[in-house]
Amino acid sequence: MAPFSSPPTGLPRLCFVSYRHIRELAMPVVAEYAQRARIEVVDATFGDALALAQDRVERGMADAFVSAGSNAAILRAGLQAPVATIHLGGFDLLQALIQARRIADRVGVVMYGQTIPELDDVKDLLNIGISQHAYRTPDDARLRFETLRQEGYRVIVGSSLVVELAEQAGLRGLLAYSLASIRKGFDDALELARVARLEAGRYEQLHSVLHNLQEAVVAVDREDRIIAINPPMRQLLGKPDALLRGRPLGELEPALSLRATLASGRQERAIALRFGQRDWVADRTLIREHGDIAGAALTLHDANVIQAADASLRILQRRQQHTARHTFASLAGGSQAMRTAVASAHRYARTDLGVLITGESGVGKELFAQAIHNESRRAGRPFVAVNCASFPESLLESELFGHEEGAFTGSRRGGKCGLFEAAHTGTLFLDEIGDMPMPLQTRLLRVLQEREVMRLGATAPLPIDVRVVAATHQPLEALIEQGRFRRDLYYRLNILRLALPALRERREDIPALILPMADRCLKRLGSSLDAAVALAPWMDALRRYHWPGNVRELENLAERIAVTLAQYADARDIPFDALAHDCPELFHAGAGPAAAERPLAQRVRAALAQAGGRRAEAARLLGVSRSTLWRWLAEQEVGTDTAEEPRLPRPMTGPV
């Protein structure tokens, strides 16, 4: 039977590998079994017999083989297919010797394998001289025969090869087999063929599944012998099917052996494995039948393929997440500058025109872009954002416009959809547009004008329906004068312009921004502190700070402040200088327009505010004695009242 193929239908297929004399003897039996099996008779010996049989195996022409003597031994050793042996019985040999006694009183016996000690007893009963010899190769058989001929033996009993040698030398050769032994061999072959067909049917579905898997897979039986293998694994092992089936996997490749899995009954998944100078992720699983372990399977996943699949999944997830999360409700702040910007954005959202958002880094340009998208008629459609400064030119071009398969070295099989296509019917947000290379500016201008995009390597453009919102922190007008930005692209983008204020231009919004951020971080850290109460002593410093990083810097500082304050269980236990080390920018002399006010005075004022005007408590918070605090008050002219407990206004503890 062909290895790993579907089981054949119809009569069992037997291949009778013989030599002329045993074939002539067996022909009546072949005729008897013609209704029970399709029998091919092949005349060959030794190496020729094995080569012919292997050819039948590889071509799937036989379910089982039947042979005798040396041929049977060679086939069993060299074939991964069932072989039935026509055995030489004692009665067969006795009949041959009786026949030989009628011809001569001395008989030579030459058999494959080894001599038969029991013949020494028989020769006395038959009153006949017997000289036994055994052979392993054709040359060995000729040598043994020649020895008998020279010794004067005229009758030789043995295998088909020995009988032929005798006839060629003019001697009498007698075949040491009977029709009964041949019938028994054919019966055994039929049973082996039946079992082989059952086994083939048992694994047919497994083979079919394995054949269509890209992973390298091999299955073994309880003895770690290969019962199924797919093309990728066969290629790894570097051997044809005929040399794999039935072989112990551990002997072929010890690193792949499943003996330990079969012995322990434990499955292993996602095991890193180095094999064939490549990295693999291996799964070792058990095959069960009726609850019992019938074998095991090894699956090798190419580590490079897994890494590529992981990257594809990440890209797919990113594209599936092409949604705008923020709305106008997400924009905190009630300053005049903020209200003006939000009002303009509301108006722009009701149109389908392009928008150019300007402002310093960190002012929230993408948040405004998402809010505009979510209030436009394109809400619910894709919102795709790309930072034009984060990609090299060649990669940015592929990201924006996509590419066809084979467009360039390393291009993705099947091509790739660009971000313009991904944003079809929705909004494409081009952040840091001022950093886009000049060649891509030209392509972008054409897309905006023609409303169609052409992938790299493509021959036909694809119509798209995309609203473009661009953003920049750079002065595009200056870049135009420097020849670094296309004037025509600027006019195409700058249809509606939205200028966002820096955080220092809307300082009154700082409490509304930082308190929710700090509160969320405190809760995440397991702190029960009220952010408004805890941050009250530093709120003036937060307002005075010039915030070069704008809201993005505010978010980072809120996290840092929360981490520092979370170590205190009660806001009243927080010393004024708790943030001095972790947030030095708030206390730097150049922190803002009020820098002329000396740091010591700031600390004293804040401590007094936190202590509700009680100087003893303020001194404790500052870590100094009351007399030192009084001296500081006098030197810094923070206050000149020498009363023990002056009645100063209590600080606000709610949101500012």
From TrEMBL:
Keywords: ATP-binding, DNA-binding, Nucleotide-binding, Transcription, Transcription regulation
CDD domains assigned: AAA (cd00009), PAS (cd00130)
One GO CC term on file: cytoplasm
Residues in PAS domain copies: 202-247
GO molecular function: ATP binding; phosphorelay response regulator activity; sequence-specific DNA binding
Keyword Ribonucleoprotein: no
Tree of life domain: Bacteria
GO biological process entries: propionate catabolic process, 2-methylcitrate cycle; regulation of DNA-templated transcription
Classification via InterPro entries: AAA+_ATPase, AAA_lid_NorR, Homeodomain-like_sf, HTH_Fis, P-loop_NTPase, PAS, PAS-like_dom_sf, Sig_transdc_resp-reg_PrpR
Residues of the Sigma-54 factor interaction domain: 331-563
Keyword hit for Membrane: no
Protein name: Propionate catabolism operon transcriptional regulator
Source organism (scientific name): Pigmentiphaga kullae
